[in-house]
Design goal:
Order of helices and strands: EEEEEEEEEEEEEEEEEEEEEEEE
Number of strands: 24
Strand order of the largest sheet: 3-2-1-24
CATH topology: Neuraminidase
Strand content: 35-45%
CATH superfamily: TolB, C-terminal domain
Helix content: under 10%
Number of helices: 0
Largest sheet: 4 strands, antiparallel
Number of domains: 1
Radius of gyration: 18 Å
Structural class: mainly beta
Shape: globular
């Protein structure tokens, strides 16, 4: 995932948010989803060419992804839905009463791995076409009665394991295909975790930092709001390591006075490379939760969990 926008011609260490330019949206094509405003968009050639507004009264878009066939799969707190870009509804799963679903990962053409917050909290793999449950396990939580704060994201690794951010337990755990914990690290309020090509793990902590840790759990790189003074950061959500070695960080923010950044890209030296700040019509993107680059091939479902493909 990547969105890159207006390179700053001034030193980011002393930049003032009031002087931030609007972003060069033509730099990349991308799929974008915002949690609070419940809107998803596709930007191509610097213009919003497609928009979907989830008009349901409940929930929030916590996780969204465009599949290789162009369909959109998204978790919206109280269920999982897949639909086409012409907005025809496909598969749908409603979360049982008293539970929430904030994350869904596609596996192949028909399967979805998701976490269901609740008492008990569970991780499932289902055939989204038939509804058949292929895998089910109970996940440990700190407070079974505090459903909303248990989990936000799960991600699959190239090895076929699942990285689960246990937000209310302050740790990230890696589960193999049998549901066994094969690695873990303590992290305060982890929002998301992804396994990097170098074997390290990139973790975003809710509003606190983005941290890369090695297999021993040692911090080898970390970005905090203090690294870019003068920029408004309300809460880090997802973080992605790009092929060029830079890191893309989503910043959940309300519009406010329009100076909040929706996402940043920083280099290994933590200096600002690009910034996304697009609050004005007709390209008002709203809050930032998920960004998926569309510049190259889109094949997010080419993953597996254990023997499930």
């Amino acid at each position: 995932m990547l969105i890159v926008l207006a390179m700053m011609a001034f030193c980011p260490a002393v930049a003032q948010t009031s002087s931030l330019p609007h972003s060069d949206l033509a730099a990349h094509d991308f799929f974008y989803a915002g949690e609070g405003n419940k809107v998803m968009s596709i930007v191509k050639g610097g213009k919003i060419v497609w928009t979907y507004n989830d008009t349901t009264k409940r929930g929030e878009i916590s996780d969204a992804i465009m599949l290789s066939n162009g369909n959109i799969l998204f978790a919206h707190q109280f269920g999982i839905t897949e639909f086409t870009q012409d907005k025809k509804m496909g598969s749908n799963y409603d979360a049982p009463p008293g539970t929430e679903i904030h994350t869904a990962e596609p596996i192949g053409k028909n399967k979805v791995l998701y976490i269901q917050n609740g008492n008990p909290a569970k991780m499932f793999v289902v055939d989204i076409r038939s509804g058949q449950k292929i895998f089910e396990m109970t996940l440990q939580v700190n407070n079974p009665l505090s459903t909303h704060g248990q989990f936000r994201h799960v991600s699959l690794t190239a090895a076929g394991t699942a990285l689960v951010a246990h937000m209310d337990m302050n740790k990230v755990c890696e589960y193999d295909g049998a549901g066994k914990i094969v690695w873990s690290v303590d992290v305060p309020s982890p929002w998301d975790a992804e396994r990097l090509n170098n074997g390290n793990t990139l973790i975003s902590s809710n509003g606190k930092f983005v941290r890369e840790v090695n297999t021993k759990g040692e911090t080898v790189w970390e970005f905090t709001p203090a690294d870019l003074p003068g920029y408004k950061f309300s809460g880090f959500q997802r973080a992605t390591r790009l092929a060029n070695g830079n890191t893309l960080i989503n910043n959940w923010a309300s519009k406010g006075d329009g100076t909040e950044v929706q996402a940043i890209e920083v280099g290994p030296d933590k200096k600002l490379v690009w910034v996304l700040r697009s609050w004005a019509a007709p390209e008002d993107l709203g809050r930032s939760t998920n960004i998926q680059l569309l510049d190259g091939p889109v094949r997010p479902e080419q993953v597996h969990f254990g023997n499930i493909k």
